[in-house]
Amino acid sequence: DFSLWKSAHKIKMAFKGEDHLDSLPLPVQRMHLIQVDSVQRWMEDLKLMTDCECMCILQSKPISIEKDEQNELILSSQYSTCDSLQLLLKRAWIISTELTRIAQKLEKNRWQRVHSMTVRVNCHVRSMINEYNTFTRTPSEEMHQYEKLLIEKCSEFTAFTERCVQTEDEQILKSMKSCINETLTTVAQYFGQLIELVLTQEAQNLLRQIELSDSMCITELAISSLFSLTQEGAHLCRIIAKEGGVVALFKICRQDCFRCLYPQTLRTLASICCVEEGMHQLEKADGILCLADILTDNSHSEATHAEAAAVIAQITSPHLTFTQHLSNFLENMEEIVTALVKLCKEASSGEVFLLASAALANITFFDTMACEILLQLNAMKILLAACSDKHIVDTPYSRDQVVTILANMSVLDQCAAEIIEGNGVQLLMEMLFERSSSGNSAEVAACERVQQKSAVTLARLSRDPQVADAAVKLSCIPRLIKLCRSPTERNNSDSVLVACLAALRRLAVMSPDGLEDSDFQQLVKPRLVDSFLLCTNMEESFV
Q: Which residues form the Protein inscuteable homologue LGN-binding domain (predicted)?
């Protein structure tokens, strides 16, 4: 059936290239690998993508004119609030996509396509409003107003495009095009405002349940639904933060009766705090002190400590441009760092270690005093020991966190002795060989960071003759030369190349006999920029 194939093709193209992992803040995220059967996905989405003009009138009519409580019960229990919101968001995404496509077709004057797509948008809008009104019981007056405006504008839009299809006069079509563009803009504006109102109301309802309910079950379901909303993007996180979501969740984290909900609550907080509004709320709620209390309380479970570490990792991310929320962080930093080192040492799984080490890595960027605290806590020894346990440090992401901490600590002169004592030079040498086993783009990027930071750490530590001597004995120089000369070894990464050139030059000063004359002439003697250009052009063909 061609129409079914066409619908399936639309779905395939709509989802092509959508990778939410890339939009998440670094350096730490939990990796969720979801494998969904393509036919199953197609069947779930087909009902939202089919041409539904013929169903428009039916969807606007009640099945029974009598108030049938049994029917109402079936309708309201068919989906949970979370499922209904997911359905609403999916329908909204389809409408948004269709409006974009209408604008593209309008530019090309493809009037027949514009009209058919306008009819389809009209139907989707009516369906979305009907679906939402089915599962909500308290729509606001403002929402009703926007629903009415949107439906009226969609009908006007459809009438406009229908007239365009019925005429062939180019002058008339040209004059109507500006009106259609204006109507399309208004439809998009009303649609955006309606969705904003709907999401704000749902966030308010969930937060009201969290704040007012004494029931463990209701609170857990509300937090779960709130977490699902945060996974839909930064805009929803901003809405939740503006409605007081961070304050409400920290209130849960301060009540012993909800201890079993702490991990789930903290996970939701970490998601909300990826936006600036969430950070401001965290400061108002005195959230850093609460996190410090949780991390230092040994009566909490490892899962709770791990999720608290995830929040710390999120709010201290060096990729965030807003840091005013961390004004109180210094007061609690020593307690937090001590608790995170302990969590790294006692971690029972790779994920727990990843979250704790990521938080530590971010803190070492935040303040140099953190490196001195880590040195006093023998953190170097703990991290190097963890790297020898393949069940704990089991991914390039974990090694990235460890080598980040080592690189930032290597600015301290006292680190060299601990690196040698813990066989750290051997570990850095192994990290120069880091390669992705899956070819996944996120994993490849993590491997590049591991190579780059291990070379940076070697360059910094090799100012100590003992470290330089150990590196030469472990054949670090040949490996660095290969990384410089072979783009495939470094995955064509320029940052890895620069780090390797810097490390090679430092080792060449300490051990000049380790290089052949051609390597010295090309990689060490020239200016760094000249060696860089030479290495980046090595595989160019001039044939």
A: 34-78
DSSP 436-451: -SS--HHHHHHHHHHH
How far apart are alpha carbons 110 and 331 in whole angstroms? 64
Query: Can you give the pLDDT at residue 23?
Result: 39
- Percent pLDDT > 70 in the chain is 83
User: Would you call 63 exposed, middle or buried from its count of C-beta atoms within 10 A (0-12, 13-18, 19+)?
Assistant: exposed
Beta-sheet strands, E only, within 139-211: none
Environment class of 314 (CB within 10 Å of its CB; exposed 0-12, middle 13-18, buried 19+): buried
Apex 429 CA angle, 423 and 434, nearest 5: 125
| pLDDT number for residue 170 | 77
371 and 407 Cβ atoms separated by less than 8 Å: no
pLDDT at 37 over 70: no
Q: Which residue has the higher pLDDT, 326 or 424?
A: 424
Whole-angstrom CA distances from 140 to 78, 201, 497 are: 23, 9, 59
pLDDT at 160: 84
For residues 44 and 495, which has the higher predicted lDDT (pLDDT)? Answer: 495
Measured CA distances, 241 to 269, 280, 463 (Å): 10, 9, 48
Query: Which of these, 366, 387, 350, 238, lies nearest to 312 by C-alpha position?
Result: 366
Q: Which amino acid is at 253?
A: C
- CATH no., domain 79-201: 1.20.120.330
3-state secondary structure 337-363: HHHHHHHHHHCCCHHHHHHHHHHHHHH
CA distance 266 to 498: 39
pTM over 0.85: no
Can you tell me the distance from the alpha carbon of 493 to that of 261, in angstroms, rounded to the nearest whole number? 43
Q: Which residue has the tokens 């309802």?
A: 205
CB atoms within 10 A of CB 391: 11
Q: Give one DSSP letter per residue of 279-314, joined into a string.
A: HHHHHHTTHHHHHHHHHH-TTS-HHHHHHHHHHHHH
Tell me which DSSP letter residue 515 carries. Answer: S
Could you tell me the residue ranges of all domains in the chain? 79-201, 214-285, 455-542
d(CA 408, CA 193): 46
Please give the average per-residue pLDDT across 243-256, as a whole number.
95
Confidence at residue 524, expressed as pLDDT on a 0 to 100 scale: 86
Using DSSP, state whether 389 is helix, strand or coil: coil
Q: Calculate the alpha carbon distances from 133 to 2, 72, 129, 147 in Å.
A: 34, 12, 6, 10
What pLDDT is attached to residue 73? 32
Contacts of 234 (CB under 8 A, 6+ apart): 274, 275
pLDDT of residue 84: 73
**For residue range 67-83, what is the model confidence (pLDDT) as tens digits?**
433 333 333 334 455 66
Cβ atoms of 271 and 232 closer than 8 Å: no
